[in-house]
Amino acid sequence: MSDIRIRKVTGNWVVRSGGAILGESSNVLELNEGHLAPVIYFPREDIAMAMLDRSDKTTHCPYKGDASYFSIVNMSTTTKDAVWSYENPIDSVAEIKNYLAFVLSDSVKVEQL
């Protein structure tokens, strides 16, 4: 069993890609899993879904379930498989359903405002 802790974090958070703001939220969740770096999950309704394109990639985590992936489509670039979501997570992490997390990179940033 993985040591997963999920908590609501305070403040306003923003996710940017290539300078564009994909979303801003004060309802984010922080998921801590064992020794891994914490991951910020944004509610789907606070993200500009029109800038995301569902990809064919999926992964499976025995502790969270199956993840679906999206690519971020900006005016000039596409960041492939940069977003994931557990659309039907297992019961022990049900609160991340309808939330999105982002693969951090030079072009994708998640920051607290």
Characteristic terms for this protein:
113 residues; mainly beta; Metal Binding Protein, Guanine Nucleotide Exchange Factor, Chain A; seven-stranded antiparallel sheet; three-stranded antiparallel sheet; 55% strand; DUF427_sf; DUF427 domain-containing protein; DUF427
Average predicted confidence as pLDDT: 95
Spatial arrangement of strands, main beta sheet: 1-4-5-9-8-7-6
Note the quaternary state here: single chain
Order of helices and strands: EEEEEEEEEE
CATH homology group: Domain of unknown function (DUF427)
CATH classification class: Mainly Beta
The helix content is under 10%
Organism: Parasedimentitalea maritima
Domain DUF427: 14-103
Protein name: DUF427 domain-containing protein
Describe the structure.
With 113 residues, the protein is mainly β. The protein has one domain: Domain of unknown function (DUF427) (Metal Binding Protein, Guanine Nucleotide Exchange Factor, Chain A, Beta Complex). It is 0% helix and 55% strand. The strands form 2 sheets. A 7-stranded antiparallel sheet has the order 1-4-5-9-8-7-6, with no helix packed on it. The mean pLDDT is 95. This is DUF427 domain-containing protein. It comes from Parasedimentitalea maritima. Residues 14-103 form the DUF427 domain.
In short:
The protein is mainly beta. 0% of the residues lie in helices and 55% in strands. A hairpin with a 4-residue loop joins strand 7 (65-73) and strand 8 (78-85).
